[in-house]
Amino acid sequence: MAKHTLIYPGHVLNPEELVNFSELDWFARNWRDLGLGESLAE
């Protein structure tokens, strides 16, 4: 499986804001379809 790294300017996203992330059904489905897992270690 290919590994990718997300690179973004620091002012665009504060990782602490992801704590309140709500997973929608369409997001979970697309995430699975891309072959992504629950953690970066997968």
Strand and helix layout:
Layout lengths: L24 H9 L9
If you had to describe this structure to a student in words, what would you say it looks like?
The structure is a single chain. The chain has one helix at 25-33. It is mainly alpha-helical and 42 residues long. It starts with 24 loop residues before the first helix and ends in a 9-residue tail after the last helix.
**What percent of the residues sit in helical stretches (DSSP H or I)?**
10-25%
In DSSP terms (H or I, runs of 4 or more residues), the helix count works out at: 1
| Low-confidence residue ranges | none
Q: Tell me about the biggest sheet?
A: none
3D shape: flat
Number of beta-strand segments: 0
Radius of gyration: 12 Å
Order of helices and strands: H
Structural class category: mainly alpha
Mean pLDDT metric:
78
Strand proportion, as a percent range, falls in: under 5%
